[in-house]
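Note to self: keep these together.
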Amino acid sequence: MLGQLASTLFAGIAFIIIARILGPNAYGIYTLALAVSGFFGAVGDFGIGTAFNKFISEYIARGKPLEIGHLIADGFAAVIIVGLVLALPTMLLSSFIAASVMHSASYSYIVDAVSLIVLFSLIYTPAYSALIGFGKGSYVAIVMIAQTLVQAVIGITLALYGFGALAPILGIISGFVLGIIMSANFIYIKQNV
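Structure:
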């Protein structure tokens, strides 16, 4: 709960700062880009995060560490495949999407970056869900706070350096990548304890 509260607070503050730095035009492009991300990312992780929550704790209770390893490997393989299936067409259609949604094909690089949000967000959610399955809520809080802080700091910094609508998108991507790396590290530690 503390991690969620802190993450929401940091994200809210960053949201206000980034909106003020970007101005209405660039911020509008950013929100349209996130709408594209939401559309393609609406598929979710097909319940893999929920399966991690349930089965990891169940396998721990039954003393089946080998099954935990198989579950995690299979789950992440499925999520990565789905993420690529969604991200690659988004990248291939980026000019069309940019022209249709943002009324300018010149924003295709923003749609390309947003497709990475789709991929990394699909990996991030089950990554921290696995930590919940291991019973490590404190690790989840650490990951969530670090992810949001990195997202905020990079988004604000790049906005200040003139990256425009791409700034908060790169911040989001960086936050997800850090969250995935931290979660994978914590999962590895739990698997080898």
